[in-house]
Amino acid sequence: MLSLYYFGNPSEISLFPRCPFHVCTGLYCPGCGSQRALHHLLHFDIVSTLDYNALYILGFAVIIYNVTVRGVNTLGKKTYYNYLYHPKTPIILAVIIILFWILRNINIYPFTILAP
User: Fold this and answer.
1) Rounded distance between C-alpha atoms, residue 104 and residue 115, angstroms
2) Cis bond leading into 110, ω under 30°?
3) Residue 54: which residues within 8 A CB-CB, separation 6 or more?
4) Could you give the CA distance from residue 95 to residue 55 in angstroms, rounded to a whole number?
5) What is the crossing angle of helices 34-42 and 54-75, to 10°?
6) Minimal CA–CA distance to 54: which of 29, 70, 69, 34?
7) How far is CA 26 from CA 14, 19, 70, 115, in A?
8) Is the separation of the CB atoms in 22 and 32 below 8 Å?
């Protein structure tokens, strides 16, 4: 599956599905631009990844953090606290996602930078 995104650029190939939320409303959802961001991330083009979807890098950072803490705890027999399991973490992440969703749809600079 990743090879499809590596070799095929979603900006140039109509094979990839379009965002149904954007098609119906004309607004960007928090995930809009993720396919193009994945293509550029696989080519290690971090700046273009951020241009298409800034939350994409945050999501990967959260995944890397989780895997690292779990790996260190398992392999190193440590007991570091994983803050992703804190009761307020889902609330904080939801607020970040909702703010990103709202701000990327404001058609005024500097918020237009957040649009894919």
Assistant:
1) 5
2) yes
3) 100, 114
4) 12
5) 60
6) 34
7) 18, 10, 40, 12
8) yes
Type of residue at 96: I
> Could you tell me how many helices (H) and strands (E) the chain has, helices first?
6, 0
User: How high is the pLDDT of residue 77?
Assistant: 86
CB contact set of 42 (below 8 Å; sequence gap of 6+): 2, 5, 6
**Cβ neighbours of residue 32 closer than 8 Å, sequence gap 6 or more:** 19, 21, 22, 53, 104, 116
Structure confidence by residue, pLDDT tens digits, 47-80: 999 999 999 889 989 999 999 999 999 998 889 9
Please provide the distance, in angstroms rounded to a whole number, between the alpha carbons at the two ends of the chain: 22
* pTM for the whole structure: 0.82
